[in-house]
Amino acid sequence: MKEKRENTRLHYATIVVGGGQAGLSVSYYLQKHGINHVVFEKNRIGHSWRHDRWDSFCLVTPNWQCRLPDFPYQGDDPQGFMLKHEIVEYVEAFAKKVNPPIMEGVSVNRVWRGKNGVLHVVTSNGEFTADHVVIATGGYDIPIVPDYAHSLPKHITQLHSVDYRNPDQLPDGEVLVVGSGQSGVQLMEDLHLAGRKVHLAVGSAPRSPRMYRGRETTEWLYDLGFYDLTIDKHPLGDAAKHKTNHYLTGRGGGHEIDLRKFALEGVKLYGSMANISGSKLEFLPDLTKNLDDADEVYVSIRNDIDRYIAAHNIDAPVEPPFRKVWQPEFDPTAIDADRENITSIVWAIGFRPNYRWIELPAFDGRGFPQFDRGISNVDGLYFIGLPWLHTWGSGRFLGIADDAQYLAGIIEGRLAVKDMA
């Protein structure tokens, strides 16, 4: 596949913005329908996996869940967890199979609708028009760093998780990681295993078992139908789209993460970050609650599996009840970074999307796209690769194929109706 294909037309039936696994999957099914299209990728295929992850990064879901369209994981370790370079190789191999009509190194700067109803796509390589536009850029555009971070003294290094690579990158001294989602706890462990003294501001993220009753938990959840749970059936409804994922890790063959155990090993835990005033770091008094809430979700997953085993009369080993191995004596609300010798802060509190370049009324008041199974309320505009696009599996290697196939089918049907008109 060429690094960059030159454009030979100005109008396409469909333009796909983003050449990651989601955009490539859409292209795969558009080709099956014979729909002329182009994929614009501002960087290079596999860029975010290659450049926006830390050195020891690996998947938190096992390799058997890597099921891009007609391209399942074919290695010899289905229960393992791909390392960063292996993920890049998997995505690049899929791209080679798809052989998409892609233009790499082309950024999309504006999407708007002309008076004739056609969608206009303005790129760094010229302007194009399309009947349909699929946005496959993901929602990780702008790293979140709170405004009060600006008051941190200059002698304390701070960076976002997207820029973290390894412990040696940070100056000598202790490190505060802010955020206990998947990235936060994995970076905390990365630093802890390297012998660094680590502090962790614990948020409201839930946690999950890794192995339970003789089997990997995601296998149980797959059998229970959790990955097929649709957003309309979720108790929280659309609010589930903004909930943090359960934390666990695939590192070293995979294991669960119990922050209480890390506290016993010397990691200092605090509640949610609240403010910074000079070298004074302030936290909400919610450490105990956040640990308890994460454990409550952890236990509820175990209970769901227990009920499934009982209902299906499955012979599975019994495990002892969960118990807390550590409890904070109090919820600390402030520390002095200089006194604690904290010389760096790593922000791991997520990202927010940036869709300001899409000049169409497809977003809510917070700038998040509104859609039903990826179909927006704007005629001809679609989204893919986002959490809970349709199911809990959406946005993952496991669920992208179904989402892409569905959208390509919708586009094919609408083009057919247009041709008949």
Short overview:
By secondary structure, the protein is α/β, with parallel strands linked by helices. It contains eight helices and 23 strands. Strands 1, 2, 5, 6, 7, 8 and 23 form a seven-stranded mixed β-sheet that branches.
Could you characterize the architecture of this molecule?
This protein is an alpha/beta fold. It has 2 domains: 11-141 and 353-420, FAD/NAD(P)-binding domain; 144-347, 3-Layer(bba) Sandwich (FAD/NAD(P)-binding domain). It has helices at 21-32, 47-51, 84-98, 182-193, 217-224, 259-264, 287-311, 400-420, and strands at residues 11-17, 37-41, 67-68, 71-72, 102-104, 108-113, 119-123, 126-135, 142-143, 157-160, 174-178, 198-201, 211-212, 215-216, 268-270, 273-277, 280-283, 334-336, 342-347, 351-352, 371-372, 375-376, 381-383. Strands 1, 2, 5, 6, 7, 8 and 23 form a 7-stranded mixed β-sheet that branches. The protein has a 5-stranded parallel β-sheet with strand order 10-19-11-12-15.
Structural class comes to: alpha/beta
CATH topology of the largest domain: FAD/NAD(P)-binding domain
* Name of the CATH homologous superfamily of the largest domain: FAD/NAD(P)-binding domain
Q: Per CATH, which architecture of the largest domain?
A: 3-Layer(bba) Sandwich
CATH class of the largest domain: Alpha Beta
Helix proportion of residues, in percent? 10-25%
User: What is the global morphology?
Assistant: globular
What is the secondary structure topology, with strand pairs?
Blueprint: E1 11-17, H1 21-32, E2 37-41, H2 47-51, E3 67-68, E4 71-72, H3 84-98, E5 102-104, E6 108-113, E7 119-123, E8 126-135, E9 142-143, E10 157-160, E11 174-178, H4 182-193, E12 198-201, E13 211-212, E14 215-216, H5 217-224, H6 259-264, E15 268-270, E16 273-277, E17 280-283, H7 287-311, E18 334-336, E19 342-347, E20 351-352, E21 371-372, E22 375-376, E23 381-383, H8 400-420
Parallel strand pairs: 1-2, 1-8, 2-5, 8-23, 10-19, 11-12, 11-19, 12-15
Antiparallel strand pairs: 3-4, 6-7, 7-8, 9-20, 13-14, 16-17, 17-18, 21-22
